[in-house]
Amino acid sequence: MTVEKVLNRNFLTISAFEGRAAIEDKLAREKFLVVMDNNNYEGLLINADLIYRPHKLVIDCLSEKPKVDFYDSIENTIAIMDQYSLHILPVFKNNDFIGVVTYQSLLNELYLQNVKNKVKIEESEKNYKLLFEKMRSGFILAEIFMNSKTQINDIKIVNVNPAFEEMAKLRKNNLIGLSLKKIFINIEPFVNIALRQGSSNMTFFNETLNKHLEISAFSTRENQIAVMVVDISDRINNEKIINDALEEKKELIREIQHRVRNNMQIILSFLHLNRMHINDPKYDEFCTKCINRVHSVALVHEHILEGNKLDQIDMQWYFTNLVSHFKQFNNKQNNNDIVVSNRKTVFLDMDRAIYCGMLVNEIIENLLQNTVSRLKIRKIEISFITTENNYQLEIVDNSAQIIDQAVYSQSFNFELMNMLIEQLKGNMQTISENGIIYKVLFK
Amino acid sequence: MNETASYSVNLSFEAIKLPPVTDILVLGKKHAQGKKGIMESFRFTAPDEFELFDLDNDEGDYEVEAILVNKRILKRLPVSEIISVLKKSVFPYVSKGEAVKVDFSVKINVENIKGSIEF
After folding, report:
1. Which ipTM was obtained for this model?
2. Which residue, of A390, A402, B4, B11, is most buried by count of CB atoms within 10 Å of its CB?
3. Which residues of A touch B32 (CB under 8 A)?
4. pTM
5. Who's near A394: CB < 8 A, 6+ residues apart?
6. Is B31 in CB contact (< 8 Å) with chain A?
């Protein structure tokens, strides 16, 4: 609060070399006069100057008075006035005289401010009291009695709010003076943390009150703490209900997956049995392809049963197992090496993972059926990565040469590949230069 | 009846200097003309000849507010020396509301000047 608020810019000026007789009436009327000489401030003339300096010229009557800075506080200015027994002082801003302040105006402003502050404090107190009374969390104010600098002897309750009375099922009168240790048995280390660090929080089951509580304590002043107590029993119970329901749901989904996998295993078993009785290589190949296709779907359900995630498939795991099966059941595997690049694990949802698995299946089938290798051992490498916005599936055969372009591009595998890419809402790039590279991009 | 009146005049005259002070003026406290007013009048009558020394806050039990000293004297004696002489010989006789003219002549003697002559 600076003197700016009470600055008086309306004042009468007189010349420094005027005779006192000429200004005595003005001074009696105005109580003070500002003395100037060639537009320069010379001083502030008050009645006392004429009494104690009875000279003929105004300039000689002037006494030096302390200067007040525009940004000085009202309290400091009053103190200066008291010290010099003056009721008025000149005010300066950047060494320029800009006005005067009077003792009365400063006192009035100070009084006004005090009244305003008092009203604000009263209002604030009222609000805090209302908050204290109406808040749903329990509130305890406690005094700490120390044995030594670090060892707590006792923590006694000084005040509680109605919410805590309700929690403790005790009246305020019975709670005040009671040791906090009797209500919260293990509170001492918790209070110690609050004293050292300013605040602390903990959640626990309180046997005395038979409730799950979340309490936070903060140090209000030396040897005093405030403790907020929130009854979280309902929340804990609801969380338990939700977790149980979630666990039950997971169990049900696992059960469904289990049954789906079992059914698929039955289909696979039938196909394997059927294959054992086929002598014609053409039908054997057809049966193998069917087994591979069904297996690529069954593998996803197996992953869900084994893993923790219900809808996310680890694509590294998936492709590795897919390739392993392919090697085991495909007759044309003798001179082929199919590998999955060891990249960072990428997870994909179940639907798209199945499409990707089937796509890999069809691409490899098509490669083995409609191309020849320029090398003695053919190497096919599968990689699956994620970029900022896309997933990228890449299959590289660095030695493949297409036997017949027409047969290759009109094969059933090729048709299926296009259908699966459409399902993924992606696109495929094929680069046939020194082998074949398939690059599938989807979001 | 007609009234008659007669008068007689006695006069003498001499030349004066302005300002009437040539060396030092000692100004007593609460003199009707304050130090700034006096200094201002000296500025008109003897521009740049006198210098004002404020003794308001000076220690000592004197009724003196200020002195105006001719700069000619200040060239010969430092002001502290002048004040010291005035304190001893003049200030005790100055009353409140009074202005005292002081004739202050300074005579400087220099003795025993030595030197060497080369042939």
Report:
1. 0.71
2. A402
3. 54-56
4. 0.46
5. A381, A382, A383, A384, A385, A437, A438, A439, A440
6. yes
